[in-house]
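A reminder from the course coordinator: this example appears on the midterm review sheet, so study it carefully.

Given structure:
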């Protein structure tokens, strides 16, 4: 399965639970997660990967930095992981 297929499923699933999945395009800060979800007073960051995809060391560093601010960061690489995230969010 391609990353794009997972991303489309992710967008649809987040919209169905009432969230707003914003695409993050950062030219000045590489390594930032692909998406940010706004949902009922929460901000959640999501990195989307193809199955078997791996985070770079810089992406891991950025995720750690985000978590230090007590924000959630998820790495999603399958439709099942999207479903699990949505279940945890509602």
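Designed residues:
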């Amino acid at each position: 399965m391609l990353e794009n297929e997972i991303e489309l499923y992710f967008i649809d699933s987040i919209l169905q639970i009432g969230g707003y999945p914003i695409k993050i395009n950062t030219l000045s800060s590489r390594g930032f997660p692909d998406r940010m979800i706004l949902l009922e007073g929460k901000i959640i960051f999501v990195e989307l990967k193809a199955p078997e995809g791996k985070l770079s060391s810089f992406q891991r560093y950025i995720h750690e930095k985000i978590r230090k601010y007590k924000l959630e960061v998820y790495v999603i690489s399958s439709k099942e992981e999207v479903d699990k995230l949505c279940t945890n969010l509602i």
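The longest helix spans residues 3-16. The chain has one domain: 3-89.
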